[in-house]
Amino acid sequence: MLVTTPTTTPTTTLRIATAGSVDDGKSTLIGRLLHDTKTVFEDQLQAVVKASRRYGDGETNLALLTDGLRAEREQGITIDVAHRYFATPRRSFIVADTPGHAQYTRNMVTGASTSDVAIVLVDARHGVVDQTRRHAMIAGLLGVDAIVLAVNKMDLVDWNEGDFLSISKEVHEFVDALAHPVPVTAIPISALLGDNVVERSLRSPWYEGPALLEFLEHFETRAHIDRGARVHVQRVIRPQGGPQGDFRGHAGVVAGGWLRIGDEVTVLPSGQTATVAALHRWGAPVHEAGPGHAVVVQLATDIDAARGDVLVAAGGGPVVGADVVVDVCWMVDRKVDAGSRWWFKHGTRTGHAVVTEVQHRVDPTSLDLEHVDALGLNDLGRLRLLLSDSIVADRYHSLPESGRMILVDPADNTTAAAAMVHHVEVAP
Amino acid sequence: MSAVTHTGASSSGAHLDALTDEAITIIREVATECENPVLLFSGGKDSAVLLHLAVLAFAPARLPFPVMHVDTGHNFAEVIEYRDRLVRDWGVRLVVASVQDSIDRGRVVEDAGPRASRNRLQSVTLLDAIAAHGFDAAFGGGRRDEDKARAKERILSFRDRQGRWDPRQQRPEPWALLNPRIRKGEHLRAFPLSNWTELDIWRYIERHGVPLPGIYYSHRRTVVERDGMLLAVGGPVVPEPDETPFVAVVRYRTVGDASCTGAVESEAADVYAVLAEVAAARITERGATRADDTFSESAMEDRKREGYF
Q1: B149 and A51 in contact by Cβ < 8 A?
Q2: Rounded distance, CA A201 to CA A224, Å?
Q3: Residue A219 near residue A183 (C-beta atoms within 8 A)
Q4: What is the value of pTM for the model shown?
Q5: Which residue among B4, B151, B175 sits closest to A84, beta carbon to beta carbon?
Q6: Are the C-beta atoms of B101 and B125 separated by less than 8 Å?
Q7: Residue A407 in this model has a pLDDT that exceeds 90
Q8: Buried b (16+ CB within 10 A) or exposed e, A156-165
Q9: According to the model, what pLDDT value does residue A311 have?
Q10: ipTM, 2 dp
Q11: From CA B178, how far away is CA A423, in angstroms rounded?
Q12: CB contacts, 8 Å: B301 with chain A
């Protein structure tokens, strides 16, 4: 018999992702952060010291703490995202160290999609490059709460304040011009030497802001605005026989608000309504459940709600439709054009999607919208889709959990795009 | 600015709450999208937590899939007793895939010598069993903090018809929108504990009172010291002429094949003492206890490419 009591205490988790161009020092920064927070174990450090010698690095190469694949260590690059974990007394951190090469942008998207904060690195000697802009734009598109602009390798420009300020100004201007601007905090650092990473450095007396870790420990993620709870039904829980034989519950994750016993919910797309009779989290009854909670909802009346349907509490305003306009990060070689067919997943709904229009491609440098017939690998753009099944969606930037989709190539089942609902076309 | 201490210093209830919700959501999603999933159960602490989460995920209904133990034949007796007790108490269906069978049928050839291990042979037994039962998804207790190759792996990890992992061709995995689509003969590995650390696992065990095999807690055992590790004498480990067995007060930080899993000296006799010990640890659990990972720099990546857990 399993007995469990859900509990909550106020320590929070912050998810962060690195971004920026090749060799701007992303993996070194994460290595430095892990090392200086004493998260690196002795045997891991010994292994890195040994590997540094083997790969011919003069000093201990902290990037090897996250560049864990043989191909990465041999070439000295990051190919795929690595996830690492550390904690301070204030907070637990989940870190996604992402690749800088344009060809691995899809792996950067994977790492950044779940992050609260993106740390965009820039090499102080080279300044802002195309990949800096592309990654800042993706971070904005994915809706991170903040960008930390880490101007790295400041030791190689003699801690010149002017270089720092001009890079900072350029990034601020670029991010402010995005469709979804994000607050930017600029910090001058040396990931290699550890300046302004965990402790404030004496080498930058002109800089009065926080060290990187200090910023991350104190950063407040965007407060949840209660938009009305919704639960995308994953499956119906129905015990076969036994004392619980008449139990029927809907399993899913709460998004957008709080759900309480007695609340009235509408099942979409059907539109039937029912009252919440009981809620369970982790196998035990609870009175209420909030964003992120994995629950089972029992309804007072036996109505038809199956996988893919959404339980929406009063006040929730998702739109139901099959004609949707989405912003996409395109992640496969196969191009997407009007008439092409894909498989989609939105919430727990899956089906077929036909592209009815390629509306534009965004030039990641100038932010100009270009009219094109197709999007290709690593392109960012906007598509209109006709879905085989209606979805119950929100705009991605109002409620990401109900506004995100993936498109899958039916030919080989690879995930072809991260798609963010811009709006659902409603028939007049 | 605040003092930074090791991971163990912060007790984070909300963090564990979020990890628990995430794991249950992944388990429900994969179990619902895939036709014939299985949960890989070694009797170790990670698979015990995984199974506990899986039971909670579908409560009050029964676990809708079986668990499978890949049995190397080199077991700790306590672990097998524990496995059988747990599946009985929790009402779970158990499938056993035996490495000895694979050896007997000539599917694998066992290394000879006192230091031979069956660890690597498990991959063939595992893949054969997945094919024989037609499993299309296998839940594993793997955690990204265990090893640098695991740190690169997706939550839903694709395996081709030969059961191979290709770390250079992983599917993108934006958000929590898992893509479970595969062709016949291919399969998926699902890692609901991807974002957990060793300390998170122990906090969960403490919070929910998850039963574990007794060897995770301090006890007296006859061991030999080999390559800096304490290996239990009896079973597959036979002392070499220059090794003198001695009795030590130990516990296990991981439980794997008895031939290559080392014990650590420890007085930690209950979950609270273990939590304190893990929080203060300066050596990773695999570094301290797994001979198989110290063979080469990319030992885990190489095994995973062959279909390992």
Answers
A1: no
A2: 35
A3: no
A4: 0.93
A5: B151
A6: yes
A7: yes
A8: ebebeeebbe
A9: 96
A10: 0.93
A11: 23
A12: 68-70
